[in-house]
């Protein structure tokens, strides 16, 4: 069977990665979470003093980009790939609120995007890939055979994210999570380079009132129509 490229884009916390992971597993495809890569660069920038709540040293970060080595390692026990930065498993740290607060700022930097897009394109050279992010259908793989644009109301998305963070033991308030989701969507949709937008040929998928099973079977159906 011919392998295809599947691009899943959309707003923050729409559950893109959950569906993308399930889909990759069902099709025996590779799954790539590009948000994790932007988060890892952000963590590096925070640790090295290139970004904080009130400062941003873009030239400093750009001159250090070559020192950031990113790769995914499949964790058999968990059943998904984890993000490694310079050989350190950063999966947990990159999901924390302090990274979420700064990641969209780092994602506006052209040199950061160029570096990550080039890695992502290499990962997808052989097709057989499900990649989720903000610019996959528009920039990374404009020729993808299947493009999904996921959306849901900000309140539904914040509720999901809030529960996830509480489950992980983070001490957060719902209002803070909602504000973060709205802020990131605003920055992501309004940035100059590769803003979050639906590709002309993407299928819009609003999952505000849809359970996981229902979402998965509908998206698998879209994929089977193309494969
Ligand atoms: O997908 P996730 O919410 O983890 O992504 C974190 C942030 O990384 C997004 O809010 C966005 O600023 C940035 N991002 C991006 N392009 C992608 C993936 C993520 O700009 N392809």
UniProtKB/TrEMBL annotation:
KW Nucleotide-binding (keyword) present: yes
Enzyme Commission (EC) number: 2.7.4.25
Top-level taxon in the UniProt lineage: Bacteria
Major localization listed first in the record, in broad terms: cytoplasm
The protein's enzyme class: transferase
Positions with a binding annotation for ATP: 10-18
Recorded catalytic activity of this chain's protein: dCMP + ATP = dCDP + ADP; CMP + ATP = CDP + ADP
Keywords carried by this UniProt record: ATP-binding, Cytoplasm, Kinase, Nucleotide-binding, Transferase
Compartment annotation: Cytoplasm
GO MF annotation terms: kinase activity
Domain Cytidylate kinase, chain residue ranges per copy: 6-223
Entry keyword ATP-binding: yes
Pfam families: Cytidylate_kin
Protein family according to the UniProt entry: Belongs to the cytidylate kinase family. Type 1 subfamily.
Protein name as catalogued: Cytidylate kinase
């Amino acid at each position: 069977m011919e392998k295809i490229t599947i691009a899943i884009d959309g707003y923050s916390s729409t559950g893109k990665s959950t569906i993308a992971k399930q889909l990759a597993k069902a099709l025996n495809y590779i799954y790539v979470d590009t948000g994790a890569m932007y988060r890892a660069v952000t963590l590096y920038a925070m640790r090295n003093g290139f970004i904080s709540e009130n400062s941003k040293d873009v030239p400093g970060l750009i001159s250090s980009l070559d020192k950031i080595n990113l790769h995914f390692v499949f964790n058999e026990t968990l059943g998904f790939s984890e993000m490694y930065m310079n050989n350190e498993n950063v999966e947990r740290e990159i999901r924390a609120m302090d990274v979420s607060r700064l990641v969209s700022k780092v994602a506006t930097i052209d040199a950061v995007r160029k570096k990550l897009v080039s890695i992502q394109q290499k990962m997808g050279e052989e097709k057989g890939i499900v990649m989720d992010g903000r610019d996959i259908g528009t920039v990374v793989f404009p020729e993808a055979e299947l493009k999904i644009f996921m959306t849901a109301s900000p309140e539904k998305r914040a509720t999901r994210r809030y529960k996830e963070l509480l489950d992980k033991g983070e001490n957060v308030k719902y209002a803070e999570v909602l504000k973060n989701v709205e802020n990131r969507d605003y920055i992501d949709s309004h940035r100059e380079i590769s803003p979050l937008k639906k590709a002309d040929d993407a299928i819009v998928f609003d999952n505000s009132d849809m359970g996981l099973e229902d979402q998965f079977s509908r998206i698998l159906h879209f994929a089977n129509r193309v494969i």
